[in-house]
Automatic annotation (TrEMBL):
This is Xanthine phosphoribosyltransferase. One of its GO terms (biological process) is purine ribonucleoside salvage. Xanthine binds at residues 20, 27, 156. InterPro entries: PRTase-like (IPR029057), PRTase_dom (IPR000836), Pur/Pyrimidine_PRTase (IPR050118), Xanthine_PRibTrfase (IPR010079). The keyword Transmembrane does not apply. Keywords: Cytoplasm, Glycosyltransferase, Purine salvage, Transferase. The gene is xpt. It comes from Leuconostoc carnosum (strain JB16). One of its GO terms (molecular function) is xanthine phosphoribosyltransferase activity.
Length: 189
């Protein structure tokens, strides 16, 4: 998606060897107009999949997921990372290991918001090592929901997330595919 690539070139900052900081429009400050355009793009990509629901993980997946839900006219459910006092005990849950942070988080979805047979689209901000999407796949499997694919805002193709999802036959649609960081610039596939 041209608009997104241009925005990454303009406002993205490279940290170390593998982190792209996009706090100016996605992970801290959010640009609603860009999110709306991305939501329409996800909607176009998955228009024929009869999606019932969108799944994401808090917190950075929520903004793109909500705009995709707006365009597709379906509800959005975000998995929670921390045990909430008000969360019931009847949850689907999966462990998610973060290579970036070297920690394991449990993600949870209340069983009443994900039912057997529902067709779901997973949306997330980054595809790096694929662990967050993998956690949502485990949850969908517990619920016996059908995952039609994963819509990703920024995919880093030099990490192994895409391969992990390919191996499970998951369709992945990324709006920007980063090939490498070259001399402080972002190169796209
Ligand atoms: P994975 O899900 O693909 O395996 O990602 P990984 O464990 O490597 O990343 C852990 C966290 O870091 C995730 O956010 C992920 O979205 C984010 N992340 C990974 N690579 C990048 C990057 O290049 N830039 C930025 N800005 N973030 C990256 P999280 O812990 O779930 O946090 P949240 O922001 O959603 O709350
Ligand atoms: Na994320
Ligand atoms: Na994040």
């Amino acid at each position: 998606m041209k608009l997104l690539e241009e925005r990454i070139q303009q406002d993205g900052r490279i940290l170390g060897d593998e982190i792209l900081k996009v706090d100016a429009f996605l992970n801290h400050q959010i640009d609603p107009e860009l999110m709306a355009a991305m939501g329409e793009e996800f909607s176009r990509l998955f228009a024929n999949d009869k999606i019932d629901k969108i799944l994401t993980v808090e917190s950075s997946g929520i903004a793109p997921a909500v705009f995709a839900g707006l365009s597709l006219h379906v509800p959005v459910v975000f998995a929670r990372k921390n045990k909430s006092l008000t969360l019931p005990t009847t949850v689907w849950a999966a462990d998610v290991y973060s290579f970036t942070k070297q920690t394991t988080n449990q993600i949870m979805i209340d069983q009443q918001f994900l039912k057997s047979g529902e067709k779901v689209l997973i949306i997330d901000d980054f595809l790096a090592n694929g662990q967050a999407v993998n956690g949502l796949l485990k949850i969908a499997s517990q619920a016996d929901a059908h995952v039609v694919g994963a819509g990703i805002v920024i995919e880093k193709t030099f990490q192994k997330g895409r391969q992990i999802l390919d191996e499970q036959g998951i369709r992945v649609e990324s709006l920007a595919r980063v090939k490498a960081f070259v001399d402080g610039q972002v190169a796209f596939l």
